[in-house]
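Dear colleague,

Following up on Tuesday's group meeting, I ran the structure prediction for the four-component complex that the binding team flagged. I've pasted the input sequences exactly as they went in, so you can double-check that nothing got truncated or mislabelled along the way. The structure tokens for the whole assembly follow below. Feel free to forward this to whoever is handling the docking comparison.

Inputs:
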Amino acid sequence: MNAQTIPPTPAALLRAAGIKVTQPRLRVLGALRAATRPMSHAELEALLGDVDRVTLYRILDTLADHGLATKATDVRGVFRFSATDMPRPHDDHVHFRCSRCGGVFCLKAAPPPPPRLPRGFRLEEADFDLRGVCAKCSGRTS
Amino acid sequence: MNAQTIPPTPAALLRAAGIKVTQPRLRVLGALRAATRPMSHAELEALLGDVDRVTLYRILDTLADHGLATKATDVRGVFRFSATDMPRPHDDHVHFRCSRCGGVFCLKAAPPPPPRLPRGFRLEEADFDLRGVCAKCSGRTS
DNA sequence: GAGCAAATGCAACAAAGTTGCATTTGCGTG
DNA sequence: CACGCAAATGCAACTTTGTTGCATTTGCTC
């Protein structure tokens, strides 16, 4: 029980989680831990090259099920995964989505304090999602 | 300039917007104005029966472009349309999405006041979107 | 009523996921 | 070390949500 400053290898993490150590899983977990922001399935697929689409979906779900990754949906409703215990810079956020051009703007405003949740609910992430018309689009009346 | 208490017919609205009055448009706008909540493409398609999928998408976009409908994305990222100037009961909202079972819970808490927007931005809707684990899912450790 | 642009309908495609099934692989056991 | 079995992978196919191209039909103006 000595303090570990060396980050655990993907293989050690998989073993510790009690799931088989396979080549695809090592690559996915490695990529996830190397990433600086939550990654979508499409991004990981492009990054890893030749992993099977379905296998990648399943590996990501498995990692999330065993606590090695966090699964969250982004503003567009697309799943994004990040390695657990990795620092996540863009976590809580205020977004503005332009309903005309579809652009997403990240506002610098701090997200408001979350309301009290019903008993048993555990908060993990919060997005304050605003929609309207951005400066550029509100210029042209269309 | 006399006060109109009679709601305008879909046909009158289409004409006023300067777009052609067609059968599919009348049906879509009618359904939208009869609906009590923002409708997804799939819901409208089921409701209307035999409108072409693509035509329905295009009609909805046309109505939105001409101010007769409002296009917004729901929590899942799916477009929802509502007739403009119709009362929309579920507009501003606090949602909690369970990252494990995917369930959406509508919290009774009032949405927080929106932050100040950059110049030129016009706010139309706001969602305070929380994610985490719901009471039922946090029961079973899995 | 004729002509033309606009709108519709159809086929096809794209992105994001899911499901079923056959094959391969990890790994505990002898 | 090799054997066997469950677990993981890879492939094909299908779903949902949305978009694009093109031929045909329809609304509206003259």
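The mean pLDDT of chain A is 76.

Cheers,
M.
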